Hints:
The structure holds 2 protein chains of 2 kinds.
Chain A: H1 3-8, H2 28-50, H3 56-76, H4 84-110, H5 112-121
Helix pairs in contact in A: 2-3
Chain B: H1 28-63, H2 65-71, H3 77-102, H4 106-137, H5 154-159, H6 165-171, H7 173-207, H8 216-241
Helix pairs in contact in B: 1-7, 1-8, 3-4, 3-8, 4-7, 7-8
Amino acid sequence: MTEATADHAHHDHHDEALPGTIGHVSHWQTLVKVLVTLLALTVITVLVAQVDLGRLNVVGAIGIACVKASIVAMWFMHLRYDKRFNFWILVGSIAFVAWMVGYILFDSALYQDNIREYREAHPLPTRPATPSGDH
Amino acid sequence: MSTGVAEPEKSQALPERPKELAMHFDSLHQQYNAGKLGVWLFLGQELLFFCGLFTAYAVYRGNHQEMFHYAHYFLDWKLGGLNTVVLLTSSLTAAWSVRAAQLEQRKTLIATLVITFLCAAAFMVVKYIEYSHKIHIGAVWSSHFAVADADLPAALTERYPDIKGEDLQRMGMGTFFAIYFCMTGLHGIHVLVGMGLYIWLIIRAVRGDFNRKYYGAVDFVALYWHIVDIIWIFLFPLLYLIG
Lengths: 135, 243
């Protein structure tokens, strides 16, 4: 691919991009808006965690974290404007992460009874602690 | 010439190549895309690398709810939140440095790179404060965990007045802190590596290495930095917030 045709493929350039620039130039206002959104979501995460929702607390925390991570990936990491292949590398990686966490989580639940029995028969040893003021 | 061998014609001479273009690429655009593909493959691997620790977290959390409940009193969400704000801000300046490199704004480029580095340093300072306090009271990994009753977090003893440090030892709290130190420690090592990379970028930016067609290093280090940020986006609520 010659440089001329390669550059032509990027017709999503903002006006401010210099002629012949490689890649997409993010507008600074967009970047600031992304940061404000991320900070707002951080505040929401903290607030939601204060309320006792039982198991839903984990789901909520991971859900908001996923939204934040997607925003970082799409805008800060330029995936929105990037080659699709890079996007699929990320998605593929996440799929394997989900597979491993999910599979091992289910598997580990199957032998918890054995662990519990063993732990009851062999309690963890304790050792005396030194108060930090004594150091 | 007397030998009669024809001189190579001018038209056969190699076209002039930009000094930044490596010999095995046709164009700077191709060089940039190849570099980016490599970085994305590396980042995909980074997620899998951290995934092992997230799995350990999930397995222990799934099977020992109570341990995580008591443990979260040991972590100060204000310090964790401060570090979240610091890292998110550094992600903005990292993204801005890419823009500055593309627009050939050298002063803005150097400024954003320096701010990103300073945010990373601030993150590590907060991390140091957190780690040193935990080590001081004995809230450390595996069988080394031994916190005296007087050093238990105030919020914990307020909620559970009868709890003793030895109860936490029997509960296996050392395992939580093994996971905590491995996850935040591996993340901290990534922050340190990022700081080194940003020093390298600052030196190159001051030297004037980057331009609108050659800024891959700035972009790729920023991508790495964003992944470090994304990992923290998950670590903060999972470790500090939910109990």
